[in-house]
Structures are given as C-alpha cells and as structure tokens.
Amino acid sequence: MNRTSTPKIPAPPAAALALDEQLCFALYSASLAMNKLYRGLLADLGITYPQYLVMLVLWERDGLRISDIGERLYLDSATLTPLLKRLETAGLLQRARAIDDERSVIVTLTSSGRTLRKRARAIPPQVACAALAPDVKDGGRSVHRALRTLRDRVLANSE
User: Fold this and answer.
1) Sign of CA dihedral 8, 14, 16, 22
2) With DSSP H G I counted as helix, E B as strand and the rest as coil, what are the percentages for the chain, rounded to 5?
C-alpha cells in the first residue's frame, strides 16, 4: 500500500496575527485616510467620494449605460443607482432609457456636470501633494501600478 502524507503547514508565528502586520488593515486604514482627504477636497464641489468616482468615469466618456459605469467602478447597480439619483438631483447628470433596449439606462452629463470637471482639475495635484513623499520621482505611478496589480490578483484569486 502506497501512502502519501499531506505535509503539515507550520502555524504562523503569533506576530503574523498582529493587526499592524495585516495587509488588509494597511489597505483599509490607507483607504480611510484617503477618504478623509477627499472629503475635505470634495466639499467645495458638493459631492462625495463615490459620486466623484462616477463623475470621473463620465468625464472620461459620457453617455454610458449604468452597467458600464458599474463595471468600471466595480459596483453593482443596487449600489450605483442611489449615487446616480443624488447626482441627478444635484443637476450634474441625466438618466434616460436606452432607445435600443428599454431595460438599459444611459447616463449623460449635464452642462453643470461638464463644468464641474474644470473645478475638479485641482484635486489630483492636491492629493499627490498630500499623499506622496517629496522624493517620489515617478509622481506615484509605481504605487498606483502596485495597487492595481494587487487588486487584479486578489480579484483573480477570489473567484
């Protein structure tokens, strides 16, 4: 009889369970800090951080279906719809049924939504100034690239 044994994985040291050793906590606390920074910067624009993300998508490409916006932001329609309603109430965008498929809703910027883009241009440099060390030579592109790679790996391994 051929017996194979499963190798035992050693238990991680106790320090591995320390809060400050957790990658998830480093990301979570960094996200909280970024949200706090953005909250202050976006107050003048009258929008929240999630609303800002929607506006960024529409400033890149106007006239998108809700499903396209959700895919771009990794949000489902149940989360996205209330954001869009508030932005529509604020006069920044319009929602209308697609002519080719009444189940789909097309989101377009209003003139106020397009104008807001000009005011929002000041935000990325302020974030870079607050978040990056003065000696970061690539303007934070390496940090940004590493975070996108991390996101993509986690998504690929969580399906």
Assistant:
1) positive
2) 60, 10, 30
**Mean pLDDT confidence for 28-50:** 95
Report, as an integer, the average pLDDT of 78-90: 96
Domain 44-120 has CATH 3.30.470.20: no
pTM as predicted: 0.84
Provide the sign of the torsion angle of the four alpha carbons 41, 64, 118, 122, taken in this order.
positive
Strand pairing of 64-65 and 105-109?
A: antiparallel
Amino acid (one-letter) located at 61: R
Q: Residue ranges of the domains in the chain?
A: 44-120
pLDDT of residue 136: 72
